[in-house]
Amino acid sequence: MTTTDRTAEQTTYGIGRVSELTGLSTHALRFYEQEGLLLAPVRRDGAGRRLFTEEEVGWLKVCTKLRSSGMPLPEIQRYAQLAREGAGNEAARLEILQQHEERVQQQVADLQEALATIHFKIDVYARGHARGQGRPAVARGPGVLSAPSA
Predict the structure, then answer these.
(1) So what CATH class is 2-86?
(2) Where's the HTH merR-type domain (predicted)?
(3) Could you read off the pLDDT of 35-50 as tens digits, one per residue?
(4) 52-55-58 Cα angle (round to 5)
(5) CA 122 to chain CA mean position, Å
(6) What is the distance between the alpha carbons of residues 11 and 65, in angstroms, rounded to a whole number?
């Protein structure tokens, strides 16, 4: 459901459409509302159905990225609270984001290292398979200290 509020000329979306736009289930959207992750109370239409603005959908997309990158819910709640409070606390918001950025960069580095090990193991098995050997030869490389075990 998409409606246009004639008084403010603002497009709003029902919870089903917001679910499609954000990738969050309707249950998750209700949970985000209950947990105080939204910037303002959710408006409702005459039938009591939730209505979200484009700005709110954008905010929800930010929250989903923070959550999917590992930011704990209490930290997102703190960030949302600071954003609701408005100007004057940008340094605190910046600090939250910078600390999270450091954690995400470490996650990326850890995944890059894991991927290098996986690439190495694939290469070892592919070379062994090409030689007609059922078991690859003893190999050393990224993350490999002895003969491959599996």
Answers:
(1) mainly alpha
(2) 12-82
(3) 999 999 999 999 999 9
(4) 95
(5) 29
(6) 23
